[in-house]
Amino acid sequence: xxxxxxxxxxxxxxxxxxxxxxxxxxxxxxxxxxxxxxxxxxxxxxxxxxxxxxxxxxxxxxxxxxxxxxxxxxxxxxxxxxxxxxxxxxxxxxxxxxxxxxxxxxxxxxxxxxxxxxxxxxxxxxxxxxxxxxxxxxxxxxxxxxxxxxxxxxxxxxxxxxxxxxxxxxxxxxxxxxxxxxxxxxxxxxxxxxxxxxxxxxxxxxxxxxxxxxxxxxxxxxxxxxxxxxxxxxxxxxxxxxxxxxxxxxxxxxxxxxxxxxxxxxxxxxxxxxxxxxxxxxxxxxxxxxxxxxxxxxxxxxxxxxxxxxxxxxxxxxxxxxxxxxxxxxxxxxxxxxxxxxx
Length: 343
What we know:
By secondary structure, this protein is α/β, with parallel strands linked by helices.
């Protein structure tokens, strides 16, 4: 890392759920001299030591090499979840845009790349015990999100082979939530008009208990700490699982809501989601639902041992904060995170 004025770190996708937390933590680090945030739309929010540039990764004309020049690390977070009905569009941003980022990192001579992979990159795995980073990353092929994350894992395999002098870190976090992301995630997965106040315990007398619906969650700020540690490290490289305990299932949610879990067959749940998705009433696709039912639980020993990382929030605390944000229409002063209370 550079000395004197501190490190210069570039963050793509800097105005989203993860990006805002990563930028804030980097600006609070006394060893970081400056942060350049890249996003499609420059936000009103401007923390100390931060500059912004409007960049669309889907555009071949984006001057990524110029933005990356002189950087000590690039933290690549940019990702488009929608439109799920047009996977070619998300492919252009997520896959082709990411490859442009990788190529620009090499051309600009950036010594470190921290890439946002995901639990979604993993092949189907167990729900009764956790797997480490050696679990295969072939994704679930029917879900665009998983397919794209897995494809980029292969792209990074080639990138690391061709550029052994660049330190590459692949973060594989669980589902990330914070209060300020509530409105954005409601729009992405639940739809524009899903009322946030519906997330109230008294309105849910029972919860559907779908076989396989057991996943992990993590507070976005806890994930951001891991990204900061990786970007500032001299030797951290390779994949790191990131998740908090306990795993989230119908039993845990039932305790939180005071609701009784009721067994619901996979086929019935998927049919309802598929019907709503085909009618454009629900943005989240049934293909992503299929993938979630197959995601493995992750062992985070490596992140604890090599990064010195530990989550501050439990998964239960994360969900409680997020649900409060849903009810309040919480958001932040960036275009992706704008708050909106519906209902």
